[in-house]
Amino acid sequence: MSDDELERLRAENEQLKAALAGREQGTPASAPPHASAKAGLAVLIGVALLVLLVVATCRPATEKSEPLLPAARPEQTAVAPAATDAAGATQPHIPTETSASPWRYDEDEDPMGGVTKTACVTSKDTVSLSWPYQAQRMQFCIRRSPKFGLDAYTALEGDGQILCNSYSRCHIRVRFDDQTARSWPGAEAADGSSNIVFLNRTQTLVTNLKSAKRLRVELEFYQNGLQSVEYDVNGLEW
Hints:
Shape: rod-shaped
Number of domains: 2
CATH superfamily of the largest domain: Invasion associated locus B (IalB) protein
Strand content: 25-35%
Order of helices and strands: HHEEEEEEEHEE
């Protein structure tokens, strides 16, 4: 409600009051009933207008709500881009693998003192043996021990009979890489084991192995003839 309307209501109220006061002074005691009813209605209207005026005056002004500010955006963490190939596809990081040496190295404490060191490789192929034996791979080893010194031997992984008799001048054919095959002197095991044979001239053998990548050894087996096996001997550290 505006201030002009309030002033108009106050003026009308004052006029009603004045009219009522004049009627009360000039109205005789025998005034008709309808005159009194009109006077009462005018009083009620005046009271209602006063109530409206008071309510309009006492009502507080509506507060304007301030607009909400947008929340502050956190800074984005910079992430390094992943490697991509020529087509744009993301490529996972794969560590570079180094080729493992075919040689297996071992050290054993000798009960009589000192340390026995060995370096062994497994054949890439197998030898065929008749019953009661079976096809199997072979091992080629270099050994240095306080008791026997430096020696080299080739042996079956299981049981079998390699024909090599020192009294009959046992010779084993060996071939380094693509060189010409050589006849290498061999010897049987001191304990008579038939699944192993030793190669003599060990130091010369080791010298050739350190510069070779492949070794072939040909042996004769009981009732199974001559057979050769191949070894990967690359990277010997001795």
